What does this fold into?
Amino acid sequence: MSDEFIESLRQAYMQDNDNIPDECPMADRVTDYAFGELGTEDTEKVREHLKSCRHCLDLYMDIKVSEEEAEQTNDQKVEVLPGLQKVIDKGKKPAVSPWQKISDAISSFFGDGFGFKPVATFAAIVLVMVIGFYVMREAPTVKTPYAIQIMMQGRTQTGFRGGQPEYKEFQVESGGQIMSGDYFRFQVTIDDDAYVYVIFQDSSGAIQSMEPGFVAGGKELTLPAGDQWFHLDDNTGTEKLYLLASKDQIAGFASKVEKLKQDGIGTIEKVFPETTVKTFSFDHR
It folds into this structure.
């Protein structure tokens, strides 16, 4: 096949989109050709037709590209071009990579004995179509979890010296114990930049929240900040801290907390689906 023929196909493809006809009487034959269902004489006629009909050239390449997606649906029903459902139902071929499909399409169209240069011209056109096809497909939203470490520091009063109280400090693991009247605080580190939110459920089941704000990855966050400490009352039971890390600020955080109070703390991951939730609990005695 001559370079002039390749150039004619390129010109047909690159022509102004406004000049592409909406229909063509050869469309059904082009579809049959794309699936290898024509004899030698009809095949040559379709190839010749593709040199001058952008509508049919688009149809041919659309089938070849879409066939890959159809084969990967594992026989699920999808919206496809006319004639493509027949290929899905028959299960003619196992799924292959998109690049192998492109190679097969080019070889089928041009036949054997071509040099690299003319094939590369048409392959460039195919590549543009494939890239556009995959870019237009909606990419799934993937939630990347944060690695969060929470340490709890306790402090209990041991007496007085010089009129000032003396304290003993200790570490509490998640699930550990701490006594009424003791003080505590949390030290948090997150592996990457995040907006941090805190929800605390005390032993009575009451829910409170804090918004510490943006925290740089690897930087330690102390709750409460500075030299402040939380103080345990006399209501014993299980106390829980829920730390939420989000790539973006959580819109309507206060209203979501109110919903959490109504629906229960067990729905926290449903109420905040785009966040990483880390839980720390301890036994208040």
User: Anything to note?
Assistant: Strands lie at 148-161, 164-172, 177-178, 183-190, 194-201, 207-215, 221-223, 230-231, 237-246, 276-284. The chain has two domains: 3-136, 148-284. Residues 77-84, 86-99, 112-121 have pLDDT under 50 and may be disordered.
